[in-house]
Amino acid sequence: MRGTTTPAASGQRASLAAMGTLIEISTPDGPAEAWLTGEDGRPGVLFYVDAIGLRPRTQDMADRIASWGYVVLAPNVFHRDGRIADLAPTDDLREPGNRDRFFQGAMARVRALTPDLSNPDARLWVETLLAHSGGDTIGVTGYCMGARLSVRTAALFPDTVVAAGGFHGGGLVTEEADSPHRLAAETGRAAFVFGHADGDRSMPPEAVATLGEVLSGAGLTVTNEVYTGAAHGYSMADTGVYDEAATERHFAELRALLDRTL
Asked: Which CATH number characterizes residue 80's domain?
C-alpha cells in the first residue's frame, strides 16, 4: 500500500502567510489532505493534530517547527470523515460554550479512529514524510488524541522514530489491551517528551505516573511532566483554553527533543 502525493487545489491554502502547502496523499479510502512545510532534505517531523483537526492553527504550529530546520508533515487524520473545509469549526472556539459544542460532534470521529485505521494511515504518513526528508529517522509530535497516535507510530516504526512528543494528550494509559502505554517495549530507541495538562480527566495523576514508570522501565529516555495550571488543549490559540506560557514551554521542550535526536 503506497501513498502518492499531489498538490491540493490552490483554494485550499489555509493562510497567505504560511510557509507550507497542502498536498494530497492517496489512501485506500480516498485522498487525504496534508500540510507539508519546510525545506525538502531536512530532518522530518510528523505532526499529529488534535481532535479539532488540521486547520490554520495547527498548520501554523507545523510551520513554526519547520522554521527550526525541519520538514514537517501534518496529515488530516480524519480524512474518512471529510476534507479539511468540511470538518473545520464554523464558530469561534474562543467564545464560551462553542468549544464544548464543537466537541459534541467531533468526539464521534475521534472514537472511530481506532488502531486498525490509524496504523495503516501512519505507514502512509511516514512513507510520504521520508520521501521529503533527509536521512532515515524522523520525529513525531502529537496533541490531544494525537499524542496517542504519536506513541503508536513510534511503536510501528521502532527503527525510524527516534523522538516522540505528546502534549495535553488523553487516554495514554487505559485498561484496554491496546492502551498506548503498553507499547513501550516496542518503541525501540525513541526518546519521549510529554507535557500533560493539569487536572486532565483523560490523563489523571495516576495515569501520568504509570506512563512514566512503564517507559522508564523499558529503558527509554522520557520527560513526563504536568504543566501546572494549563488546561487540556493549552497549545491551541484558536480556543478558549489557550495558555501562552504552557505553549511556549512545550515548544521549547519539543525543540530540545528534536535537536538532540535528529
From this structure: 3.40.50.1820
